[in-house]
Amino acid sequence: MTAFYPQDPREQTEPFTAAAATDNATRPSSRQGAPGVAAEQARPEAGGHFADDADEQPRLEARRDLAAAHRLAVWHDFSEGIYNHFTLAVPGTNDRFLLPPFGLHWSEIQASQLMTIGFDGKLLAGEGIIQRSAYCIHAPIHAAHAKHQAVFHTHMPYAGALTRLESQHLLALGQTEALLLDQIAYDDAYDGLARDPAEGERLATILGEKTILFMGNHGVLVTGRSAAEAYDRLYTLERAARVQLFALWTGQRLRGLSPAQVDKVQDQIHNTPLHNSPGEQYKPGYQLHFEALRRLLDRREPDYRD
After folding, report:
1. Are the CB atoms for 90 and 116 separated by under 8 Å?
2. Which pLDDT band, with edges at 50, 70 and 90, does 275 fall under?
3. Nearest-CA neighbor of 119 among 100, 155, 144?
4. Region annotation Disordered: residue ranges (predicted)?
5. CB atoms inside a 10 Å sphere around CB 266
6. 10 Å Cβ neighbour count for 144?
7. Full-model pTM
């Protein structure tokens, strides 16, 4: 994975964009499944839509899902203005992902504004600034495993508070926590800002095939096979972290679950249906949850779809 950024972007007088450095990003990634992307030029179409087949329904819906996730993160206090980053692989590809231009507040992000970024850092479609840490963290994680289609990184307050504790582990205190515990990896070796893809590769190695990463002294990162799955996981994680902190704040002794109780909950979630919809009509809870949230957005902030 090639670092296409200068050593210190603060030394620049103009905003740095990947489009200005495509000739520095041609080396393929060392990770399997992440070949370098042949040089392409960004091709914005009329009306703000881009020529990466955005009008094809799966890709259009992916754009809308990612835009919705950003809007919802503002609602749920997961965001930090223009900072942090959510990305989503472009459906039908294994070498590019969607990312909003850096500088947009998450409450104003629209589907048509999302840029398409190659794993090699090239801007393939759209216009805007690529945040350095977004590329350096997300490209290696997308490339590391096919299950990491959506990669959401935040400094959300309750989970972020846990990463500041001497032991940042989510405790087995209740049912919600038990649903998550087997999916969590921990990075206890904070090493500064993500200024090079080597940091993303390090994080991807720690994460492996799990879907939640606690990043000590930093924040959290979750992945999913879709924006719906990743957002539901992020939502559930922040709720669990909040409950844990509330329990700690009481000063009383904690009552945790036994390993056998945790194992039973995990077996139930993996091997028993959540509801009674038959066959092809069955949707997992995370999909129903995200669809419900999108319906709320459709009523209150329908421009996210544009």
Report:
1. yes
2. confident
3. 144
4. 1-55
5. 16
6. 24
7. 0.82
- Type of residue numbered 260: A
Best CA proximity match to 155, nearest among 78, 232, 69, 67: 78
In a domain? residue 3? no
Residue 6 · residue 16 · CB < 8 Å: yes
* Torsions phi, psi for 228 (to 5 deg): -60, -50
Question: 52 in helix, strand or coil?
Answer: coil
Crossing angle for the helix pair 285-300 and 227-249, nearest 10 degrees?
Answer: 90
Whether 4 shows a pLDDT value over 70: the answer reads: no
Interatomic CA distance for residues 113 and 93, integer angstroms: 19
CATH number at residue 118: 3.40.225.10
Domain that holds residue 199: 15-22+31-300
**How is 235-297 classified by DSSP, letter by letter?**
HHHHHHHHHHHHHHHT-SPP-PPPHHHHHHHHHHHHHS-SS---GGG---HHHHHHHHHHHHH
36 vs 121: CA distance, rounded Å: 9
Strands 212-215 and 184-187: parallel
The number of folded domains in the chain is 1
